[in-house]
Amino acid sequence: MERVTGRFYTPDLLSAGLATRVAAELAGSTGVGLTASKSIRIGDPFVGDGQLVLALLRALACHPCISTKRVVVDIRDTDSVALARAQERIRALALDLRLNVTIEATVGDSLGRSSLPPHDAVITNPPWELLKPDARETSALGVRERARYERWLRTRCDELDSRFPESRADKSWAGWGTNLARCGLALCLRSCRAGGALGIVLPATLMGDQASVTMRRTLVEKAALIDLAVYPSEARLFDKVDQPVVAACLRVGAHGGVVGAVRHFAKDASVRAQHAIDWSERGLSSTDYALPVAHGSEGAAALTKALAGLPCLATLEEAGLIWAGRELDETRVAEKLLSDGPFPFVKGRMVSRHQLVEQPWASVKPELAARIRSVAHPRLVWRDVARASSKRRMIGAMIPSGWVAGNSLHVAHVTDGDEERLLALYAVMMSMAFEAQVRMRLSTGHMSLGVIRLARVPELGKRMRQRLARAAKAALTGETGADARLEVEAARAYGFCRKDMGLLLGSFPKLTQPDVEAVLLPALWASR
């Protein structure tokens, strides 16, 4: 049940920073003043241990315009024990800070309501979880119990999707797409008064995944971003959570071309980078409202806008020019393999940049290989998983026809069998110009094919195809300097100049100085 409630209590470090921003916004230090009312209302609909509310009260006590007012604290949680503890802690802190606090505590499911009474400020960490059947919960259940549980879960999903349509998944996994964090964000947006402040902790995936496009558009329409703090997975802010986290401070009811700040933190909680973002329909619609939460992605975001007229990889698929997907499910893969045979089996760990680091040692059973049409084509393959902190995330190579790729690899081929077109496609997809677009939208280690399909690709004339194909061949055969040549040729195909490429390199923080210098070498750009 803990998974279904998605409970992760908020650490002090994150709480204090977010509370400081929300208090400053509420106090009017960034332009939003309080009403003439003698009281203010703050709330946390998923209060847990109360850490965020405690941090906000401490921050509010530093603002004289608030510390003299009556503060109504509306706290809610499904866990009566946690709620009682939070209430006790809030009461004790209010006495210590000499704040006039009235606590309204409610046991219950906040997501069971479409909205709460309007608040001057909401600060919260909503539950995180994608609702779907999970083996951790169903493995011990009988057939009837499992069916009953799945019916209950489906009813829960339908209710939430109906109550919060803006949070409904744009893309779903096997029909399961309801995300509690999106539902919580939708509820909080509705529960702040116009001009109120919202501080919310969310999984960074929501800032760029395909399932949350409508939710992000709603966010841009209904609120202005004041600050977005991005913490890497390596910071380990939550137990048992290995993913990046964001803490957003927003002004609800304000919108229209507001420039917000994005701060990227290192694993030691120091700020390693900061940049502005054009928080507007015009500034974000061309990238499905994806926010540049990956370190260095602001440069890619700026250049991506210039590529808006180019086709997406998905457009080439729809036109029947290429095919992309996966081949053999690796579940119980040993049962699908032979020690020898005509269909060598390759999986993700065997693939490195432009080469195989391990040769196939088994073959797929012929009756299974015969069902996979793409096996008849030479293909480019790339790993399904690559950590956000990796030097490069598009880690791929080429495999010949007859080989079969496990689903730890994505595969793609051209439909007309033209080798030059395939090599040109390889050069484009393995380039920084392509990968930077992908990095901008990814927040986890999963290299989502849906995200990759959104990346723009250049329209290639015959001469450019030839140049890219030569560059790909050189990289695949390990020629000295070939990787840098591939990058330059791909950048030219996109219409980037050397200066543009310098900006793009910011999306690759693990590149060494020699790597950067090789790509920007004037002689490469001067040659034709």
Give a nutshell description of this structure.
With 528 residues, this protein is α/β, with parallel strands linked by helices. Helices cover 37% and strands 20% of the residues.
Strand content: 15-25%
Output the number of helix runs.
21
Q: Biggest sheet: strands, sense, closure?
A: 9 strands, mixed
Query: Order of strands in the sheet with the most strands?
Result: 3-2-1-4-5-7-6-8-9
Q: Helix share of residues?
A: 25-40%
Total number of beta strands: 19
Sum up the overall morphology in one term: globular
Helix-strand category: alpha/beta
> How confident is the prediction overall: mean pLDDT?
88
N/C terminus separation? 62 Å
The residue ranges in which pLDDT falls below 50 over 5 or more consecutive positions are: 1-6, 29-33
**What's the gyration radius in Å?**
26 Å
Can you characterise this structure?
By secondary structure, the chain is α/β, with parallel strands linked by helices. 37% of the residues lie in helices and 20% in strands. The chain is built from 21 helices and 19 strands. It has helices at residues 2-5, 12-27, 51-60, 64-67, 80-97, 135-138, 143-163, 180-190, 213-222, 281-284, 297-306, 313-318, 366-369, 419-429, 432-441, 449-453, 462-476, 482-494, 498-504, 513-519, 522-526; strands at residues 39-44, 70-77, 100-107, 119-124, 192-203, 223-231, 245-252, 258-265, 271-279, 322-325, 337-338, 345-346, 351-352, 355-356, 363-364, 379-383, 396-399, 404-405, 409-414. The strands form five sheets. It has a nine-stranded mixed β-sheet, with helices on both faces. It has a four-stranded antiparallel β-sheet with strand order 10-19-16-17. It has a two-stranded antiparallel sheet with strand order 11-15. Strand 2 (70-77), helix 5 (80-97) and strand 3 (100-107) form a beta-alpha-beta unit. Helix 11 (297-306) packs across helix 15. It is globular. Residues 1-6 and 29-33 have low confidence and may be disordered.
